[in-house]
Amino acid sequence: MILFKNVKLFDGHSLIGERDVLIKNNKIQLIQNDIDEQSIPMDILHELKIINGNGKLLAPGFIDVHVHLREPGFEYKETIETGSLAAAKGGFTTICCMPNTNPVIDSIETVQSIKAKAAINNGVSVNCIAAITVSERGEDLTDFVALREAGIIALSDDGRGVQDAKVMQDAFMQAAELKIPVIIHAEDEPLAKGGHMHAGEKAEELGIKGIPSTSESVMVARDILLAEAANAHVHFAHLSAKESVRWIEHAKKMGINVTCEVTPQHLVMNDQDILEDHGNFKVNPPIRAREDQNQLISAFQSGIIDIIATDHAPHSEEEKSRGIKGSPFGMVGLETAFAVLYSKLVLQHKVSLERLLQAMTSRPAEIFGFKNGIIEPNGEANLVLVDLDKRKLVDANNFASKGKNSPFIGWELQGWPIMTIVSGEIIHEDKEV
Questions:
Q1: How far is the C-alpha of 236 from the C-alpha of 33, rounded, in Å?
Q2: Any stretches that span the bilayer, and where are they (predicted)?
């Protein structure tokens, strides 16, 4: 049993002020203005852990639908275990792993293997996203029915865009019948070919071939039309371009079943923040221009962009030491996501705290059918306690993730998760508190 006293409560929808919250038998038992521990029966009082929140924020555990755990095949970058530890440290209680592993998550056996390994971890819920096409080659569709029965929550060829429109059309049609969301990595490969960062002034300054925004936006437009024709649910991963936002806004006004996500790095950075030729700044889609960043922030606050997803993509330090041209795409983000967004958006009055929290809890739960995401009596006790006043420097040496490839290293941030709870059990606690 855990009794939180004097916490600033966000219930998944809104901030509702200071409350006491009692957790018993893995569930939320009571939410009241004042819960007197003396009212708890003596025979179970000895089991009670009292945590005085002193105004700290208690919210549903964060949900991240876009994480690369690298296992199987790339365990030197990350494992299910280390990725789950990083998630817990960042306040995430539910994560979804992308399929570009080796072997690719395109079979029942691989899904079952990942779920079995996740079951013996720290309690963070690890959900599988399976490939749209076999081995993510963009040719033959995977067995959607079998994968759905194995427990996947969505389909994606993340890391690659499905280039063949006929293959994508067939995928949308099958997914619509099974009511499976399709997550799109929107990238036209011929347009993006050979690029390493956004095609803009900074790329020219560094002498690095750029990736144009059209490589994303043309695929967003194509897949909106294909999804509309199939009456499918299309979800666009890691939006980066202002033109993509325009298409999403139009599609939503037309009543098309489209949702989308944005990463912390695309909201708080633009290409002028790339101060050196270092692999930690290389991500796909790339960090784009200031006007793209501003449009993403506006669309996020208004709800055109639905949710936050980190696209947590760990690599080895050796791989990321080869400069922007020679390094693989990807940044880690699970452990810094909330602090980055709170510091750079909420505290700078660009985004409201409620909107940020909705995008990390109830909204992803609603889109992908998770039962958690809100705090209510008899609900599952998956929670995060955040100290909105806590300040510290981002130090990769303290990451739980194997990946140290963060562009935020050295940033001083405010607002850090200090306790993560899954099914009423504390799975992470900041010992500095």
A1: 40
A2: none
